[in-house]
Amino acid sequence: MTKKQRYLFDITGYLHLKSVLTSEILRTTQEAVNRYINTPVDQMPDGFGFTGLYQNGFAFDKCLETLTLHSVTWPIIKELLADKPRFVRGSLKCDTHGNWQQVEKSVSNPGGLHCARDDYGRYSTRYETKDGRIYCDDLVAFFYFTDVFPGDGGLIVIPGSHKSEFERPRNLLTLDDTDGIDPKPHSVFTNITPRAGDVVLISELLTHGVLRWRPTERDRRLLVLRYKPQYMGKSAFSPAILDKLSAETLELISSAPYHHIKDIVKRDVVTLTI
Questions:
Q1: Residue pair 249/67 in contact by the 8 Å Cβ criterion
Q2: What is the SS3 assignment for the chain?
Q3: pTM exceeds 0.90
Q4: Residue 60 lies in a domain
Q5: What CATH number should be reported for the domain holding residue 146?
């Protein structure tokens, strides 16, 4: 990480990296994403399916798998996870205007705000700094394949909330009655608007949510990749998915003792063995 990236991630809890994907890589990944989304559910290969998210989207095509070890994000992943990374999940998300509806959760929690504290308990996830280094035990990377413009909706975050020592007030945001889905605008949250080819990295301790996708003529497509320390948990991928992956990705997925250094971590750039 650069000094600027390290400072911004520590103070806000996220990084917005622009133009990470080249035009050629963006085109091939967009085509792969399109193939997955347009595959009928009953024709999807073993290990793939749709349950609100397109499961295991990272493994649908080799060009998507390479994003787990992308040359721009890989050094950041290594640093934030103290050279002990493990890849734990990679789903494809596609938001359209039509797949949003008013539900009880909209009223009780406008914007669907959540973080690791809410989902897994206050002491489930580590974020701290020591001796000039950040330790982040739950890191998420969002690779964007479509543009998001101001007013479109999409990802919202409360900058700096990854360091909060207080429980978030449940009435922090108020439902916009004219919409019945989104919260009323509030200075406490930021709506991040990446373009196709951008990447957003967040600590899972950062309070975040999603605004309704408003455009009717286009959707929001992104790959959601999650990383945790290698000594926490074990792989939950099915044999059908594991059989599709390159050796380097399998090593990234693997659990390992605290003091073990994976071979891929010793490399600044990792190229998948096809």
A1: no
A2: CCHHHHHHHHHHCEEEECCCCCHHHHHHHHHHHHHHHCCCHHHCCCCCCECCCECCHHHCCHHHHHHHHCCCCHHHHHHHCCCCEEEEEEEEEEECHHHCCCCHHHHHCHHHCECHHHHHCCCCCCEEEECCEEEECCEEEEEECCCCCCCCCEEEECCCHHHCCCCCCCCCCCECCCCCCCECCCCCCEECCCCCCCEEEEECCCCEEEECCCCCCCCEEEEEEEEEECCCCCCCCCHHHHCCCCHHHHHHHCCCCCCCCCHHHHCCCCCCCC
A3: yes
A4: yes
A5: 2.60.120.620
Q: Are 116 and 124 spatial neighbours (Cβ–Cβ below 8 Å)?
A: yes
Spacing of C-alpha 91 from chain mean position: 9
Is 272 within the bounds of a domain? no
Structure tokens at 132: 């000039």
Torsion of CA 111, 223, 60, 245, to 10 degrees: -120
Residue 101, pLDDT score:
64
Number of domains in the chain: 1
Which structural domain, as residue segments, surrounds residue 59?
Answer: 3-266
CB 190 within 8 A of CB 53: no
Q: Indicate the residue type of 194.
A: P
- Strand order across the 14-17 sheet: 14-17, 199-203, 139-144, 220-229, 85-95
Tens digit of each residue's pLDDT (9 = 90 or more) over 25-36: 999 999 999 999
